[in-house]
Design brief:
- With 346 residues, the protein is of the alpha+beta class.
- Helices cover 34% and strands 21% of the residues.
- The strands form six sheets. Strands 10-11-14-16-15 form a five-stranded mixed β-sheet, with helices on both faces. A three-stranded antiparallel β-sheet has the order 3-5-4. The protein has a two-stranded antiparallel sheet with strand order 1-2.
- Helix 4 runs antiparallel to helix 5.
- The longest helix has 19 residues.
- About 4% of the residues have low confidence.
Amino acid sequence: MTEDKGILIKNIFYMLSYAFQELRKNNYEEIAGEEFDGVHDLFAEILVRGISAQLKQGLHRTYVPRHDGLNTLRGKLNINDTMRMYANGVHRLSCEYDEYSEDNVFNQILKSTMIQLIRHSEVKRERKNGLRRLMPFFSNVGEIDLNGIKWNTFRFDRNSKTYQMLIYLCYFIIENILLTTESGPVKMHSFSETYMHRLFERFVLEYYRRHHPEFHACARQIAWNIIESETSTEMLPILQTDIFLTLGERTLIIDTKYYSTTLQSKYGKESIHSAHQNQILTYVLNHDREHTGKTDGMLLYAMTGEESLPHGQMKWHDGNMIYYRTLDLNQDFEGIKQQLEALVKI
């Protein structure tokens, strides 16, 4: 199998390579020429190469708090615990100290992700063996509760920046894991729409950043065009765009969508989802404060196997355009690039 949810596996790698620049360096480039039976098989290969490269630099170490009973004093003495141990016949000192160790959350995530991929039926034997060969290097690293990882708290400094791509990749994998208490072992779903949507969004943004720096591509927040003194501003949501492009005198706001069903159907009529339409209109009309008509919007859908796909446009009275387009990810990557180029030449 060379597809996952209608997308060529190699194109998922290309999307990742735009989202994470590290994948365009060194031995990662060889991955593009290989065949993968599923997206998790691809992820396993990336992790094997990425972790192998990290091991050459050494596993990241941090000061980890410890609380142990020791024969000699180390760090801070916990008097109450020490007296309790002596009362129970244990002649040790209860010490609280920091240890410079590789048993930190970054390495725990890598180890736990490798374990899940080794168990996954989609991952080929040779890649499972590659992951197993890496496991001894994590013998001093514990596993982590997959449900308790607080992804939004991670910060990457000078010492841990080489982990950023690997941790983000683990995020995509682990967030698709289903822990079952009935059968015991951990099972994994196919790559879900939620995380493909995030990858699709970042891929489009990074594509324009890389190939068209003159567009100043960014994920920009838009301020509400309101009278703040007469508005309950604390009740308003943040207007966070996916892709914000400056095309000469015009602005194009792209909102990416990745769904198995792109259109809604009511009374036998197919149409754009109302929530999608309202969202892009809200971005455009709040940004074009002076009613210049120079701000346009686009709903960009990943193509599905449906017969009817979004394609068209709507012109606002002020001159603003709203476009509906689809991007076919199940083709040679050159074709994807041509489609992305055509989107900004409308």
